[in-house]
Amino acid sequence: MEKYSITPLYAVGLEGFFGATTIIIFMPVLATWASRSTFFDLPRGWHQMIGNPTVLWSGVVIALSIAFFNFFGLSVTRHVSASSRSLTVRSYFLLFFVPTHSTRIPVAH
Question: Three-state secondary structure along the chain?
């Protein structure tokens, strides 16, 4: 980060743009396999997401939490070492990801 003089918000925006562009390009290509797997069935996935407010708002909150985490992580990396940022990422993983995925969440079919 010391070599580049871009703002953290711009870097996070580039990351989001890259992710959205990748999804927009590859999802229609992968949708050709929808007959073999429901994982790539775009209309079905869209209706499941929009039809269930819990899923929709969970997705929004997850996207915002990732954006905020990246923004503040990049902001911190400008002032402290990359190893401190790495420690922050590991702490985030241990505090949020592990407990969330270690609980048994019922899946609706």
Answer: CCCCCCCHHHHHHHHHHHHHHHHHHHHHHHHHHCCCCHHHCHHHHHHHHHHCHHHHHHHHHHHHHHHHHHHHHHHHHCCCCHHHHHHHHHHHHHHHHHHHHHCCCCCCC
